């Protein structure tokens, strides 16, 4: 018995956008970092663009595929790095879901990016504290990393806003 898959236009869109996000994710992994895991998160520009253009479910696919495929290609699948990345992605998606369902005009790319960045670092910190380093001292790093997340979220949100505006024009 043969199984015939018939990919939809949406499947192709998700694959292309996830490939773009994975490519950026891998390039970011090559950048030197002052602290382990501290990255500019440019791959999240793709996710927020997808959120603004195609909705939450497509953005969730792109984000989760980026984490999974990126970890497979980088050799970090099921490692602490993968778990932290997944925790951050899930936390971001969990905060973005209700944000996209609020009445009215809602949030724009900058608001989504800021919220996602703060949720991402918060999710990672909760996992790191609860599973890897269950010591209260780890929370001394949180304000510094949250500040970095706000800065990165703002920059990525501005980039996303320009990309989305360009695509709409």
UniProtKB/TrEMBL annotation:
Keyword list, A-Z: Membrane, Transmembrane, Transmembrane helix
Top-level taxon: Bacteria
Membrane-spanning intervals of the chain: 14-31, 43-65, 77-97, 109-132, 138-159
Pfam families per record: Hpre_diP_synt_I
Name the UniProt record assigns to this protein: Heptaprenyl diphosphate synthase
